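Show me a record, fold above all:
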Amino acid sequence: MKTKVALLGTGFIADIHMESYDRFVPEAEIVAVFSRNMANAEAFAMKHGIPAWYTDLNKLLEETDCEVVDICLPNFLHAEAAIKAANAGKHVIVEKPLAVTLEEADEMIAASRRNGRLLMYAEELAFAPKFERVRSLVQEGAIGDIYMMRKCEKHSGPHSGWFWDIDLAGGGVLMDLGCHAIAWFRWMLGGNPDIRSVYATMSTVLHGDKTRAEDNSIVIIEFGEGVTCISDDSWAKHGGMEDKIEVYGKEGVCYADLFMGNSALTYSKNGYGYAMEKADTTQGWTFTIHEEVFNQGYPHELKHFIDCVRNGGQPKVTGEDGRAVLEVIYAAYESARTGRKVMLPFAPKVNKPIDLWLGNNEEEVTI
């Protein structure tokens, strides 16, 4: 019998999840989709052959017999949806970032525990085949003890308009892309490593007409055991996606590029349909991506979570992991505001992380 899933959201990431389920997770069945817009919900359901569509989450949870709720909604809706789903007895997988605030993250984790349900933080880079090969090389001792890592993710800006609104997104490129780097660093260092300090610099260099959030950021994280990690993220880079890692060990080094190694160099005078995520044009020289969704790890993470639900396993990436990522993001915004290194643990006295950088806190934050 298949595991029944309700998908919340009808945007870009929801399409990626649907492709992953359809092609790679035959043991799952999507029985319902939710959107705040009825036309979007119906169109998505018709496109993917989903039997039921809703604009009322409460009705979806009451009327469907789904076991899993997959949350692909805007950031500010993650917590409410996850808590309602857990209280309705559903297992939950939620796209990044886990939530907009640490308080929301704590409530999501508590609701899942209280109801005995699984909560998975959907960090696909913990499942991306090429990056996982790098991790296995490190575990084999191929490059010796790690002393530094760098994760770089850049493109020209998000797909949906809500990303530009700090009240809906909770932050800018750091919340959108930097969260991947932070989660991946922790994954590479054993899942729950000791984080000593965070230093960050950020600015709005290209999209100031659209957002008050940062569109370019660099975050330096000092872990225990002398490991330094750099998260380099941007919404201001043209030419399509860039997503690559560097791992430096005392006896070697390893580089991996999520996109360039999975592409065909193409020249087209007239252009064509699709080259890669965030590519502005397909005219001239382009990198035509092969199996983009598979190589990014989305099918693997969804298949893993469905297996956990079916067989009683524990997710490799948990709600607690998502909360830890969010704490580092808070510290990075505070560091960018003050120009100082922020020591962890960090307990902010503001709501959204970006309020620190913008100086919207009602009282001075103590470090």
In short: The first helix runs from residue 12 to 24. Residues 362-367 have pLDDT under 50 and may be disordered.
